[in-house]
Amino acid sequence: MTIVAAIQLNSTADLAENLAAARHWQGAAAAGGAKLAALPENFAFMGKRETDKLALAESDGGGPIQDFLAQTARELGISVIAGTVPVAVPSDDSRVYAASLVYSAAGRRIARYDKIHLFDVDVDRGDRIEHYRESNTIAAGEPAYVVVPTAVGALGLSVCYDLRFPELFRALAQRGAEMLCIPAAFTQQTGEAHWEPLLRARAIENQCFVLAPGQCGTHATGRQTWGHSMIIDPWGVVLGERLDDTPGVVLADLDFDRLRQVRASLPALKHRRL
Questions:
Q1: Catalytic, out of 58, 115, 178, 208
Q2: CB-hemisphere CA count at 13 Å for 169?
Q3: Could you tell me the residue ranges of all domains in the chain?
Q4: Does domain 3-271 have CATH number 3.30.720.120?
Q5: Is residue 216 annotated as part of the catalytic site, yes or no?
Q6: Catalytic residue among 53, 134, 160, 216, which?
């Protein structure tokens, strides 16, 4: 059995409260047999203002959030994907990197990916327009294709808005990814319309498992996030989904023989001509 977990959270402006919630659900994942657990974007903090995260910026490799992740992975004996952690930008205290970090079951950090595509959009909710400008407080990572071997399989990293850029995921698949992790804090409006179709498309077109842990509910800013954390197989089948708008954990058993069967019987990745 190769059980993995996607954890859904409703993160607040209280760091300690969020870390306690993350620890609780990681423990539930481990108790359910998971070898790897993925946390959503902004799992440790969603403040009242976008600038609030700057006060929590950590140096690369150390800080309360990163220490928590390493310790939790080690204590539970599971690999952990930390959706995003605010990592300081050298010589720029007005922005942070949204860094997705991966820890082995021994508590050692084995990968870092900084979110490339930033959510600078205006979302029409019908009664009002919601304005999002991540670039005001987040620095875009340098374009990178991060694929890391884990105890479960080869893992390709991305974050939230990256989901809308299929070329990133094709490059990850070309570099050997068998699983794609897409931690997110999708808005309710865009999530209802696009979350599942885009996730299933990324799974199908790249013949990979997809782990998609998300934020849910209403946050300190009044922002509403979609939730619906899910795990999808390489044929586009949803193996598990968190349907209600509350924190929780989604578990699924990944069948890598099935992945190889899909790729062998429909070898689209080998048929590419562009």
A1: 115
A2: 28
A3: 3-271
A4: no
A5: no
A6: 160
